[in-house]
Write a structure and sequence with these properties.
The complex is a heterotrimer of chains A (227), B (378) and C (366). Chain A is of the alpha/beta class. Chain A has 6 helices and 10 strands. Helix content of chain A is 33%, strand content 26%. A 6-stranded mixed β-sheet of chain A has the order 6-7-8-3-9-10, with helices on both faces. With 366 residues, chain C is α+β, with helices and mostly antiparallel strands. Chain C contains 12 helices and 9 strands. Chain C has a 6-stranded mixed beta barrel with strand order 2-3-7-4-6-5. The chains are: A alpha/beta (227), B alpha+beta (378), C alpha+beta (366). Chains in contact: A-B, A-C, B-C. At the A-C interface, helix 1, helix 2 and helix 3 of A face helix 1 and helix 9 of C.
Chain lengths: 227, 378, 366
């Protein structure tokens, strides 16, 4: 049994503003296996965004340990975390995913370009991903010329480009109709399984949670089902 | 104008940046005007600010004071022209003078004191006009160089006159040199001292005061026709025809026009882009019943506010620069006469530039609010 | 970096504000520079054409070409100073010139000289003159008999020379006797003594110029000897024009930089969301800032090219009497200063970009 994609141990996140103390995450412990898709549901303000941010090395916890694919994130500098994200974590955000003036293919290649690691292998990988996602014909289009479902697929492709161990999805189907949503979820689930990638999906879309291996509820910063 | 003010307050940085850019450009324009205007004045201020409405040149002089000189019979002939109430000779030349312990350039404008005093400086700010030979009104800008009231300067040369400064006037320089208005006899003395071999001292110009009710252009034409070898100009014509001045002024106008162009462009594009970005909320407002005039009015109000703030910033910067440079080699001073038309003109241009955005607002179709445009990307 | 260029190429519209403003600012700078250079060249041509290593004025003349006077004895003393190779007299007379067949009187500067130079042929015969090309543009031709001054002294053009004007008046180069005649008949009040000149042109034979200049003044006891740059700077109005225009140009460059800064700040503001996402994906602040600077430089250079083309076009339609001259050195300095201003302007967004928190890319709050 290989190490989990994500391991959270007693993670707490506390925000202080003046006299107020907000406990965004309270003793959260979670383990996500390498080919497991976990759905995280909860009302607004429940802390799911905070958890996602911490898991994605975007935010440091106040207490507790975060281990992604065997690497302990505690104490990493901002630069180190940036670099780690670029290599090991994939994101599919809710609002902004794609660079509007880059084609689908270029969007997949953008992070490698920025880090100067773009080479022939990267391009081959990008083209393969685009094919697998059914976007082979559309790879030269900019987001403005792609449908909502196609855009989401490009976003997923981009998230998988750096061959991450963990992919985080923030409301991946909220702007899609049921049929498209189903298609996208099947794609996500398929990729998680085939590539041995751990996936956490934050969603409030009840139609889609059945695609996940597990559904975890989060209320007021507390996880309902411990790892 | 609720919408306009709310939007500005909500996006303070954005509008602040634009107002800042406008302010800088306003500063640039006013700065250029002040400096370039000051440069021109230091060339021709003396003639601009003397009291004769008409000046008669040697026809051959190409309207150049330095190149002009007239014979006594020509002076008499001008006096005799109908419509001329008074005509007196004016002598102008540049000399080496000793002032403040140093040798500097000095220009003398000599006019006969024992007469109607035609050709006297009009911008006296301190002291008095000369009443006797050997006294002078000097250009205020050169006060610190030994031309303050009470100072005595001497024209270099055998028999060069000593001149006591008894008055100061603003904008009285000629050819960027310290200038003194003196009695004609002092001018003659200086000429003889500087040119010992000269066989005669000739006046440069004739200053003319027209009789009451006589039109200046009519008079200058009449003088040209009646007197041989002369060209009569009004004071304004004389100033603008000084060699190089008209060319330089034209160039300044082009330069200022370009600067105005930048402001218009910047404001126009900014508001156009802003309007395009707000297409959705604007469409929504039109759909729920906001009249077009209201939206346009808000846009205009925003433009005016941005211009006002920018103008205040620009003027503030000029005043700041002015306080830092007073007394220095380069003076930056604001003149209400130029500032007011300039900022008014800029505001008008900005509104003209805003027309592009207005057009965009007018083209909004309320029905589009009901069309689902899908998810928004950055 | 390539991402930044792609944005420029595919979304040029969003750079149109800063680009348009820069184009007009470049136009402005080139016009200001062209005017300054034109005024300078047109006023100093005569002195620059002399190939003088030093110019001698009488020390009571405050370095004025017109008011100075050097007697023949003084000239001899100067010629005998060690290091002085050749000495030639110089005299000016500023007068109106009538060109046959033309109505308007042109501005002329009659210059009596003795030494030819790389720009000037040896002095012509009495009554003849080498005229500056400016008079050709006013309608004069070789062989024309010019009438100079109110006394209408006649001078026959035997050739044209270039860039020899004094204070914007066309150079008319004559032998010394002719100059004295022109002066005597037209300006009896400005006559100099027999055989005297107003100033002297000195050529030095390889010795240290500054030393020779000092030696001349010591030997004569009554002269003020300047280098040719010094003589040029002493021409009335030149240093004030330089100072004023340089100040205006400097301020314009600073404003250009600030305008670029403001607009790139605006652009950055609009792209906060995008930058957050790119940072979340692993992009570093450094890469993003570099991208902004690359865009600033490309916009600046493009604006310069467009502004430059516009300037050249406008120069064709500008009326002839405006002394505008576009020098290559001016174009280069304008390009450099605008580019630097753009880079500095782009750098202003540095802090904002560094402060973007990639966590803000996630959804809509806690």
């Amino acid at each position: 049994m290989s190490e989990p994609a994500l391991q959270l141990d007693e993670v707490r996140k506390i925000y202080r503003s003046g006299e107020d103390v907000v406990v965004a995450l309270d003793h959260a412990s979670l383990s996500v296996a390498r080919d497991e898709l976990v759905a995280l549901v909860g009302p607004s303000g429940s802390g799911k965004t905070t958890l996602l941010s911490i898991a994605g090395a975007l935010l440091e916890p106040t207490e507790g340990r975060v281990v992604v694919s065997g690497t302990d994130l505690t104490g990493l500098s901002s630069k180190q975390r940036t670099s780690f994200r670029g290599q090991e974590i994939g994101f599919v955000f809710q609002a902004v995913n794609l660079v509007p003036f880059l084609t689908a293919r270029e969007n997949l290649l953008v992070v490698a370009e920025m880090n100067g690691t773009l080479d022939g292998d990267t391009k081959v990988r990008a083209d393969r991903l685009l094919d697998e996602l059914g976007l082979g014909e559309r790879s030269g289009n900019q987001p403005g010329a792609l449908s909502g479902g196609e855009r989401q697929r490009v976003a997923i492709g981009r998230a998988l480009m750096n061959e991450p161990r963990l992919v985080l999805f923030d409301e991946p189907t909220s702007s899609l109709d049921t049929q498209l949503g189903e298609q996208v979820m099947e794609l996500i689930r398929g990729n998680v399984k085939e590539r041995g990638v751990g996936g956490i999906m934050v969603t409030h879309d009840a139609r889609m949670t059945h695609h996940a291996d597990r559904t975890i509820e989060i209320v007021d910063g507390r996880l309902d089902v411990p790892a | 104008m609720l919408l306009a003010s709310r939007e500005i307050l909500r996006a303070k940085v954005r509008f602040g940046l634009l107002a800042g850019a406008v302010g800088l450009l306003v500063f640039l324009i006013l700065f250029q005007q002040a400096l370039l205007g000051g440069l021109v004045t230091s060339f021709i201020g003396a003639v601009d600010n003397q009291d004769a409405p008409v000046l008669v040149f040697n026809e051959q002089a190409r309207r150049n004071v330095e190149g002009s000189f007239l014979r006594d019979d020509q002076v008499e002939a001008v006096r005799g022209v109908a419509g001329v109430a008074a005509a007196e000779p004016i002598g102008e030349a540049t000399y080496t003078v000793e002032a403040g312990g140093e040798l500097v350039d000095g220009v003398l404008f000599g006019y006969p004191l024992d007469g109607p005093g035609l050709g006297a400086p009009t911008s006296l700010t301190e002291g008095r006009l000369p009443t006797a030979p050997g006294e002078a009104v000097a250009s205020a800008a050169d006060e610190a160089e030994g031309f303050a009231i009470g100072d005595v300067v001497r024209v270099v040369g055998d028999g060069g006159p000593e001149i006591e400064i008894v008055g100061r006037g603003e904008d009285l320089r000629w050819s960027v040199a310290p200038t003194m208005f003196v009695d004609f006899s002092t001018f003659e003395q200086a000429q003889l001292a500087a040119n010992p071999e000269a066989t005669a001292v000739l006046p440069s110009l004739v200053a003319v005061r027209p009789a009451d009710g006589v039109d200046l252009d009519v008079l200058t034409d009449r003088i040209d026709e009646s007197v041989d070898g002369v060209e009569a100009l009004t004071n304004d014509e004389a100033v603008s025809s000084s060699p190089g001045v008209s060319a330089v002024n034209q160039s300044f106008r082009i330069i200022l026009a370009l600067a105005f162009g930048v402001v218009t462009l910047v404001v126009a594009f900014f508001f156009l882009i802003l309007t395009v970005q707000k297409a959705k909320p604007l469409t929504l407002l039109r759909a729920v019943g906001a009249p077009v005039g209201y939206l346009v009015g808000n846009l205009v109000a925003q433009i005016v506010v941005v211009m006002l703030v920018g103008i205040v910033i620009g003027i503030g910067l000029v005043l700041l620069t002015g306080s830092l440079t007073t007394g220095g080699a380069i003076e930056v001073q604001l003149e209400p006469g130029t500032v007011v038309p300039t900022v008014a003109g800029l505001t008008v241009l900005a509104l003209v530039g805003g027309l592009a955005a207005v057009r965009r607002v007018l083209r909004i179709e309320p029905i589009r609010a009901t069309v689902d445009t899908g998810s928004e990307l950055a | 970096m390539r991402v930044a260029i792609r944005e420029l190429v595919r979304r040029p519209g969003r750079f149109s504000v800063v680009g348009g403003a820069l184009v007009v600012l470049v136009l402005l700078l080139l016009f200001l520079g062209g005017l300054l250079d034109g005024l300078y060249l047109n006023s100093t041509g005569a002195v620059r054409a002399l190939d003088a290593d030093a110019v001698v004025f009488s020390d009571d003349a405050r370095r004025s070409f017109l008011r100075s006077e050097i007697s023949p004895d003084l000239a001899e003393t100067v010629a005998s100073v060690e290091g002085v190779e050749r000495v030639g007299g110089l005299g000016f007379a500023l007068l109106g010139v009538r060109i046959p067949g033309e109505e308007d009187v042109a501005d002329g500067a009659v210059v009596g000289y003795e030494l030819g130079s790389s720009e000037l042929p040896e002095p012509p015969a009495p009554g003849e003159t080498y005229a500056d090309r400016q008079l050709a543009e006013d309608g004069a031709a070789v062989g024309d008999e010019l009438l100079v001054g109110p006394a209408q002294v006649s001078l026959t053009i035997v050739g044209f020379v270039d860039d020899t004007n004094y204070l914007q008046q066309a150079g008319l180069w004559v032998e010394p006797g002719t100059w004295r005649r022109v002066l005597a008949e037209n300006r009896p009040d400005a006559l100099v003594a027999d055989g005297a000149f107003q100033s002297l042109v000195v050529r030095i034979d390889g010795a240290d110029a500054a030393e020779v200049r000092d030696r001349i003044d010591e030997a004569t006891g009554g002269t003020d000897t300047l280098s040719d740059d010094g003589a040029i700077g002493a021409i009335p109005g030149i240093s004030e024009q330089n100072a004023t225009f340089t100040a205006v140009i400097g301020v314009t460059v600073v404003v250009a930089g600030l305008v670029v800064a403001l607009f790139f700040a605006l652009l950055t503001l609009e792209r906060l969301g995008l930058y957050a996402v790119l940072k979340a994906f692993g992009g570093s602040s450094r890469t993003l800032v570099l991208g902004v600077i690359v865009q600033a430089v490309v916009v600046a250079v493009t604006a310069f090219v467009m502004g430059g083309a516009l300037t050249v076009g406008l120069l064709q339609v500008v009326p002839g009497e405006i002394p505008l001259q576009l020098e290559p050195s001016r174009a280069v300095s304008t390009l450099v200063s605008v580019t630097i201003a753009a880079v500095v302007g782009g750098l202003v967004s540095l802090r904002r970009i560094v402060r973007i928190d990639p966590a803000s890319a996630i959804g809509t709050g806690v």
